[in-house]
Design a protein that fits this description.
The protein is mostly helical and 79 residues long. The protein contains four helices and no strands. It has a single domain, classed as ACP-like (Non-ribosomal Peptide Synthetase Peptidyl Carrier Protein, Chain A), CATH 1.10.1200.
Length: 79
């Protein structure tokens, strides 16, 4: 599974949105369901998948499916 697939799955589960409604560009501004509670779920899921706690800066940067995928790719050493 790619980091983009992981990112979409994380957002879909946290926001209770069907996976096929998400794109690489889906972001916090474009989804009413991506509220503060969903954001906490997203952060926790990213931390679990990455195996490390996110810094406050990383948490601020997690605002889209793409930013989640980019963060996960950096953690795994993938381009």
């Amino acid at each position: 599974m790619s980091t983009m697939d992981d990112a979409k799955r994380i957002v879909a589960e946290a926001t209770r949105t069907p996976l096929d409604q998400l794109t690489d560009e889906t972001d916090i501004q474009s989804m009413d369901a991506w509220d503060s509670i969903a954001h906490i779920g997203i952060i926790l899921a990213v931390e679990e998948l990455a195996g490390k706690q996110l810094t406050p800066e990383a948490i601020i940067d997690i605002v889209s499916v793409r930013s989640i995928a980019d963060f996960l790719a950096m953690q795994s050493g993938s381009p």
